[in-house]
């Protein structure tokens, strides 16, 4: 086990983490930047250049393909990578470990050929050939457009974009975009680039059809149902903050986000949070929050407070996103009794419907007890049944037992 | 609202549900009160190892009967209970521990329980993953592991099928002939059984119960890695000693192929906070690696902590509580509540109904600590090991 020490540990090398790291490094503060992706830049934004520019900095220790698996002692994180385990002690910690896609069960969603929206993008980036393939992208939120664009760029034929929110709701969101000119420009560009792609509102996937593999998708648009043949279906219902580490550290969360004050301090001393963790709001909000946290951490309180004023604008954007793309009730009612909800443990909707709480479901159906540790099904059950899934047990990610065991030289064997 | 019943059992853990079933089978009108998830307290926290322990003659009698009652009913358990007769393999790491294995073997044989002493060579044939250098072992073939919350649910459903009622609510205090619930309701019952594990002290603060924290780790699925419940013979020292903190090697192959790794004991002065104590967890894992080096590279998916309701002499409190007419206790099982659920239920229901019990009830008398003249049974076993 390697023993590492740093002044500032940053978990997540996306826009928030990189923005904070840049400020701290410029100030001369040693930074350890940890990310479970193979390169810095984030999963959605993929701002590789920003990370690459920083990579050689003498005060930066960049740990990519590395996961934080536990917080075994105050000011200490347990890390794991393919090279082994390390223990990192820090003075300050910035959590900027982002969000994941919300996946919700519907009949057929476990068929090969059905993926998350971000999931299909990632598959394409890692070499999946979609040239000439018919793709349907469905779910909710602006990220569907980005997915459509990257699929189109990879040569796929995006035959349908389906947004569950109503036309009225999406229009209201679009009309408000002038508050955030950058977002408006982005939206207009996306709209231009996707002008050949049919974009239907008030439309959701009822079922994925096929025997061994996806063959067609049944969509519901208002009162009518249509079936479209396709090769890939990518469905994502927006993003959910990755709260497990924040909770393991004892940071307070509220309504599914980490609670922070105006300068990004969490409820735990010396622990800060920025980016999607504090509310889904995209790259601009994340970068701004990363800068606020960075300024505070280097002791520039006044500058941090001054910058924090600009945060309100992005909080309004986050609120608008949440409001206008909120899920319609039908989305929580798609699963039938035999629809799998927990993929790890093969638990179906019918069994879960008999339970009264997340804990009861865990104990009596094994839902959430598999290697994904309830990341997918826990969030799904929250939407489906309204169950609060507050606690998660260590480790934050599945980890090798010898990582959890810590330093063998200090552990006693009697 | 007032409800009347003959027996009110507080707590739908595995002991309370087994008792409900036993009393209902004898024709009593039983109500079982539970505020949380069925089998969600101590029942869900442990390993589900059905094992006879001989820390004292009374412990031996109750746990052996418990293991045998489960064996008889195993065929009726639902698949979800994951009952699996994998046997217990006690590991001896020295000649002294091998002597202890031989002593245990004689005891089992005396009671007609089949077991097999293993030489080192035979031990490695049974479990090739064990670290080299062990002296041998003792295999108790008929012992089993199971998933306690599902077994608990099954017992409850059996009790309900015979007329028992499940009532949702949290007991706030015991009153004359009844229980007051947090929501203000009062339940009247001729007899009340407190079977609420560690929470029993919220109703009866004078009970000699102390939460004894334990921690477990479960891995991803590695079917066939090990075949028996593996326990070091030193486990008995850990389980029966009164040290503030101890760890012992105890690994179980679950029906799912997962490995469940224990065990640790510590008296919790921090109440029932179930955070992981990392230094102790790490000590426990180091102990596990000492016996099973191959564990190091396996993936852990979850750790958790729970609390055993411990009494000063390691024996449960089963019987009428002096000074509280009509109040009975079925708690304080420490780590043996799952093993002894059926035998504890049988013993207590015999006492409640007025039938002669098949096990001597005196060592379990809840009032044994308050009577200064009653000597507390010393443990022969830890002496043999130290």
UniProtKB/TrEMBL annotation, chain A:
EC number: 1.-.-.-
Signal sequence, start to end: none
Ranges for domain FAD/NAD(P)-binding: 7-289
Protein's UniProt keywords contain Oxidoreductase: yes
GO MF annotations, alphabetized: oxidoreductase activity
Matches recorded under InterPro entries: BFD-like_2Fe2S-bd_dom_sf, FAD/NAD-bd_sf, FAD/NAD-binding_dom, Metab_Enz_Cyan_OpOx_G3PDH, Opine_Oxase_asu/HCN_bsu
SUPFAM superfamilies per UniProt: FAD/NAD(P)-binding domain
Gene3D superfamilies listed in its UniProt record: BFD-like [2Fe-2S]-binding domain (1.10.10.1100), FAD/NAD(P)-binding domain (3.50.50.60)
Highest taxon in the source lineage: Bacteria
Keywords: Oxidoreductase
Pfam families assigned: Pyr_redox_2 (PF07992)
Presence of the UniProt keyword Oxidoreductase in the record: yes
Family matches, as PANTHER family: ANAEROBIC GLYCEROL-3-PHOSPHATE DEHYDROGENASE SUBUNIT B (PTHR42949)
Name used for this protein in its record: FAD/NAD(P)-binding oxidoreductase
Organism of this sequence: Parachitinimonas caeni
Automatic annotation (TrEMBL), chain B:
Pfam annotation, one family: DAO
InterPro entries reported for this sequence: FAD-dep_OxRdtase, FAD/NAD-bd_sf
UniProt key word Oxidoreductase: yes
Enzyme nomenclature, EC number: 1.-.-.-
UniProt keyword Zinc-finger present: no
GO molecular function per UniProt: oxidoreductase activity
Annotated FAD dependent oxidoreductase domain residues: 7-350
Residue stretches spanning the membrane: none
Highest taxon, organism lineage: Bacteria
Alphabetical keyword list: Oxidoreductase
Gene3D superfamilies found in the cross-reference section: D-Amino Acid Oxidase, subunit A, domain 2, FAD/NAD(P)-binding domain
Name the UniProt record assigns to this protein: FAD-dependent oxidoreductase
Organism: Parachitinimonas caeni
